[in-house]
Amino acid sequence: MLLLKTSDEGFEAKFTKVVRDRRESDTQVGRDVSAILHEVRERGDKALVEYTTRFDGHNLSTEDDWSISKETCEEAYKSLDADLREALETAAERIRAYHEGQLPEDRDYTDAIGMRLGARWTAVDAAGLYVPGGRAAYPSSLLMNAIPAKVAGVGRLVVTTPTPKGEVNPLVLAAAHIAGVDEIYRVGGAQAVAALAYGTQRIKRVDVVTGPGNAWVAEAKRQLYGVVGIDMVAGPSEILVIADGKNDPEWIAADLLSQAEHDPTSQSILITDDARFAAQVEDAVDLALMKLPTAKTARASWDAHGLIVIVDSLEDAIPLADRLAAEHVEIAVDDPEPLFAKLRHAGSVFLGRNTPEAVGDYIAGPNHVLPTGRRARFASGLSVLDFMKRTSFIGASQGALEAIGPAAVRLAEAEGLPAHALSISKRLS
Amino acid sequence: MLLLKTSDEGFEAKFTKVVRDRRESDTQVGRDVSAILHEVRERGDKALVEYTTRFDGHNLSTEDDWSISKETCEEAYKSLDADLREALETAAERIRAYHEGQLPEDRDYTDAIGMRLGARWTAVDAAGLYVPGGRAAYPSSLLMNAIPAKVAGVGRLVVTTPTPKGEVNPLVLAAAHIAGVDEIYRVGGAQAVAALAYGTQRIKRVDVVTGPGNAWVAEAKRQLYGVVGIDMVAGPSEILVIADGKNDPEWIAADLLSQAEHDPTSQSILITDDARFAAQVEDAVDLALMKLPTAKTARASWDAHGLIVIVDSLEDAIPLADRLAAEHVEIAVDDPEPLFAKLRHAGSVFLGRNTPEAVGDYIAGPNHVLPTGRRARFASGLSVLDFMKRTSFIGASQGALEAIGPAAVRLAEAEGLPAHALSISKRLS
Known about the structure:
Chains A, B: Pathway: Amino-acid biosynthesis; L-histidine biosynthesis; L-histidine from 5-phospho-alpha-D-ribose 1-diphosphate: step 9/9. The structure is a homodimer of 429-residue chains. By secondary structure, chain A is an alpha/beta fold. The first copy, chain A, folds into 3 domains: 2-24 and 235-365, Nitrogenase molybdenum iron protein domain (Rossmann fold, 3-Layer(aba) Sandwich), CATH 3.40.50; 27-105 and 122-230, 3-Layer(aba) Sandwich (Rossmann fold); 397-425, no CATH class. Helix content of chain A is 47%, strand content 17%. Chain A is built from 18 helices and 15 strands. Chain A has helices at 11-20, 27-43, 45-56, 63-66, 70-79, 82-100, 139-152, 170-179, 189-198, 215-224, 249-260, 275-291, 295-305, 317-324, 337-342, 357-362, 398-414, 418-425, and strands at 2-5, 67-68, 107-110, 115-123, 126-130, 156-160, 183-185, 208-210, 229-230, 238-243, 267-272, 307-310, 328-332, 348-351, 388-396. In chain A, the strands form 3 sheets. Chain A has a 6-stranded parallel β-sheet, sandwiched between helices. A 6-stranded mixed β-sheet of chain A has the order 2-7-6-5-8-9, with helices on both faces. The longest helix of chain A has 19 residues, at 82-100. The radius of gyration of chain A is 25 Å and the shape is globular. Chains A and B meet through helix 6, strand 4, helix 11, strand 14 and helix 16 of A and helix 6, strand 4, helix 11, strand 14 and helix 16 of B. Strand 15 (388-396) of chain A pairs parallel with strand 14 of chain B.
């Protein structure tokens, strides 16, 4: 953990280093992934069988080895502990309600010169969701990816997920049942993303691929961007807590650790105007780490990437927060509004003392797939729009064409595009 | 030019080949670009100077070699022929009006359990627009990229454009003046995109890079996706004209040629239910090519990639059009509405006999930066949203947290994330 004070000499250089440090994958991953994509594109299912044996210790031969049926998902759902099933249902309902509010409106109007103009939104035909296996197999991720796709109106929803040594996660299957997933394939890694993007004999290609994954999965999505639509290149998780000294240090420590426990590369940052409070939080983190079952991961993250910044006033936290452009920003003060109004770059903001970030991970409603690695400067969280596309349209009446056609002809000629000019001038009287 | 009839044996295989053919860049470009990005990242301006000398024959030494001032742009604007200036102004006004209608609305509401939820849109801080030099230096492109950025509220708008042998295009400078561009650098190619994304000593980095370019520029954007936001990987232009036999063959021929004249890799496709009309269009294309100043390019494109498909009924055109997912689709019939209603995948649609695609390139208002290479299956044209990002927010009252917190704790525990659970349970009474 690094402790900085804005009033210290050398603060700017140290803070700049934090902002610039990219906790991202190396170029070797790029080469490996590139080879895997090539193999899957050329050899389809055969490549999937080989990689799945090699990486997951899982043999793809029978139908049940390849895929998980809707019936199996329904059984997993029915076998779930009632409390947990209810929790999943509540989460799904709230996520659905929030995302329904994102459905865009079409435009269709005729302007003053008689030109009909507009835009129509439609869902993509098919979407593929990557669901990690093993430790990071999160049913909440499945809901957060599948529900926006369903709300968008996607007709075919495909999940790929690795099942290491054949092991499946019943919670994920139950979530797939709730979300209405159409197909599940037991394939993971870059090879799964390649299968979704290119299609194989067994797995029909999709139009958009979303969902979290390890460095290979993220790199595969990056390389296939353009072949399919993707949600975003996702990196390690981050939380930035802006807090005054009137918070319970244990609460804030838990918030910081809730990101740190994800991965050793996760980053947890506290900015406060109260040095005494900062020390209390530091102590509370150390204390919590003694009992936390995920302490190994959380401690590695906190030691390597944890940061506390002491500012003179919480107002000074905002420009720093904008430079960090963090995935999650908590504003833990009595009245978060004035600080929130000034903040420009953040994936999602958690307002007030009663809104731990984890409530957004599961159940609040907004999406938990958010831009990481300072990408909130230009990117947004996953939404219904990621599963839709917009077709603009233009309909010129004879009068409208007469009104503005000559100007377009002039521009086309000036650009040296005579056929463009001709296609308009031929239609002018 | 390839002529297909849906009723012919072997149609499906031949049409599938057309859909699958990617008129895209090769892997050598990928390696070259990767090296250029690395050099610019490591060596900044020095790399720019070297590449600009080598590729553009332009020496970057004085301030005027590096950049073009706002004053120079204003002079170019004032020196413009009055008709042309008015045409540019009309185009800018109409583009602005259409894009203002794209500004998204924020959300902010409190749900039944007392949870405040919402989303706030903000503009990115800075955007970089790539403007090609030489033959493809289009003022219309500058307007189509810069105006949405301005409407979004982007504070700093940077243009990079190559000036081969020092040559500048006064029309582009005039357009930059009209659009309110803040900085123009005389750098092009992958090296310009790298400078915009990473920043150099002279060129401060931006958050989003948009704009057309050659294969190197497109590949640079693809590789830098995630470091910055980009509009889309753009490939060669396409037009698909769906027309009955009652059109003037010369009009439709001009429409087809308006794409073909862009580049030898462009693609022009006619689908019609009238074989006699198809032959007339073919003849009209040949005739027009005899007089067209851009015939060399247009003929190369038409010969290599031109396609006419004869269908039994225009209804049959729609599933083919959806598979082609073309950048531009004209529906040249008396009542385009029923066909348009069924079409799912297209960048932009041009309705009726009086709407040549070129009217959308310049002056109708909607953006002419559109998804190519079948990407309309999942991507949309450039819009104000490409220069903005959305921050979701959550504010839990004590009551709201009590209502759904326990369910979130259950899910966190089931996912094996105890610090997530702790951050909520500590706040529950």
